[in-house]
Amino acid sequence: LQLVESGGGLVQTGESLRLSCAASGFTFRMFAMGWFRQAPGKERESVASITWNGDLTKYADSVKGRFTISRDNAKNTVYLQMNSLKPEDTAVYYCNKVSRLNPPFGATTNYWGQGTQVTVSS
Predict the structure, then answer these.
(1) Per-residue confidence band for 30, with pLDDT thresholds at 50, 70 and 90
(2) Cα(68)–Cα(17) distance, integer angstroms
(3) How far is the C-alpha of 96 from the C-alpha of 109, rounded, in Å?
(4) At residue 72, does pLDDT exceed 90?
């Protein structure tokens, strides 16, 4: 299992970022996937999830209406489009296989990638 997150960066309030997570080592198209984030001094929290075929998505209340999760099973990649970013979105973002869709959800594996840092300045 390998998960490689990318696309993070430093942006200003109101700007957008698109995160990517390239997966390998398992049959990606068979699993629901999710995005998580962890801010300094806080526990990791669930952000968004998507079914194996992309037909259903769920979001944490804090990002609903601003973030969009999607996937491309041909590329073994899951994405997180983040619009109208706020300083409270600042965190390291991770993807993983998930056990259910409705947040709060957990990962089905103890493996985590390196994550990608998102920093939103005010």
Answers:
(1) very high
(2) 11
(3) 8
(4) yes
Alpha-carbon distance of 11 to 54, in angstroms, equals 28
Helix (H, G, I), strand (E, B) or coil at 24: strand
Please tell me the number of Cα atoms within 13 Å of 62 on its side-chain side.
14
Q: For residue 96, is pLDDT > 90? A: yes
Cβ-proximal residues to 104 (8 Å cutoff; 6+ apart), any chain: 45, 46, 60
Q: Mind spelling out the 3-state secondary structure of 60-77?
A: CCCCCCCEEEEEECCCCE
Q: Report d(CA 16, CA 36) in Å as an integer.
A: 17
Q: What pLDDT, on the 0 to 100 scale, is given for residue 97?
A: 97
Q: Is residue 59 pLDDT above 90, yes or no? A: yes
- What Å distances lie between residue 109 and 22, 36, 40, 59, CA to CA? 16, 13, 22, 20
Distance CA 122, CA 117 (A): 16
Give me the pLDDT at residue 99, please. 87
Distance CA 35, CA 17 (A): 14
